[in-house]
Structures are given as structure tokens and as C-alpha cells.
What we know:
The protein is built from five helices and eleven strands, in the order βββββββαβαβαβαβα. It is an alpha/beta fold. β4 and β5 form a beta hairpin.
Amino acid sequence: MKSPFTFIHTAPEATAGKQPAIFLLHGMGSNEEDLPQLVREFKDSHHIFSLRGPIVFDPGYAFFTIEEEGKPIRVVFDEVLTYIQAFIHEAIAEFELDEERIYVLGFSQGAVLAQSLALTMGSVIRGVVALSGYIPDFVKTDYRKQSVDHLNIFISHGEYDYIIPPQWGVESKGYLESLGVNVTFKTYNDGHGVTPENHQNLVEFLRQS
């Protein structure tokens, strides 16, 4: 891989034919070691790529910076989204991935990116898990969007999330459904995190998608 990203990659045991893949995008202040535990059930059947955000943000890293919560700095967001798109395309080619079974899972700002990738990469992305995120206004209004009527997306939110309000998840659900996306939306008795029930539900979603 020629990508500038630092990342963790695990390959499935199966070697015959093209294999599916899950790309993981962490939240602000975290790193590439945070999310693989959420998809450990798939390590024997899927390629798993967990990317580290390129921006140092104590105690970890970030993929983009913000003016305030809900408002990414556009120039930084545009650039990192382009780099992640390139990473996914490069991984598909280098590891001969199954182009019809590419999934992206993100938490917080990783969920913001995951939903934006789905809108801009079209049929490249089969399914998305967006945990406690939102879709930036400029993505809705300014980005050139691809067909998403094939897309399955799981959106979840903590009912007591005071960092990214659950209403933003509701708005994402409505917006994506208006485009023809098949949306599974769930809320949990939690703040800005992932409960065991949330984990179980996202695993079930990925298995069925």
C-alpha cells in the first residue's frame, strides 16, 4: 500500500476467491486500535483495515478538525475524505477484495466520514455502520453524490449523547431515506459510546448485509 495512512490490517484465513472487507474509522482523540474489537467476529472471514487519523489530537489522533461540533473545517474534511477514498480503491486492487462486499464502520467523526464516503463512492460501498455521527450540511448541499439505492446503513446513537446529539442521527436517517437508502436506526440508553447491545446489533447488521 502506498497510502500515507498508518493502519492495521488483518487478513481472513480463507484464501480462495475474493474476500469482503471492513474499513474502520475511529473517533476524535482515539487511534487505529480502538475499533477492531467491534468486528472481531469477522476476522476469519473479512479483510479488516483500521485507519489512524493523520492529525495529532491528544490523547490520540483525528481525521479532521472542527470549527465547533457539527461543523468540520471544510478544506481539511475534503482532503481526508479524498485520501480515504483512494485508500479504499487501492486496497480493493492490491488485496483483490470483493467489490460487492465493501463495508465501512465509523464512530463519532469516523461515522461522519463513513456516511460521507457512502454518498460519494456509490456502488463501491455496500454497507455502513455509523455510530454516533452526523452528515455535514456541506456534504448534503455541495457534494456530488452517487446512486445509493443499493446501500444498507446502520445508524445508532446514545439517547444521552451530549457530544453529538441523537437528533443529528435522526436527521441523518431522514435524509438518507429520502435518497432511497435502506436505513436501520437504533438508540440506546447510553451517552457517547457503544453498549453491548449496540455491539450485538451492529454485528447482526453486518452479517445480514
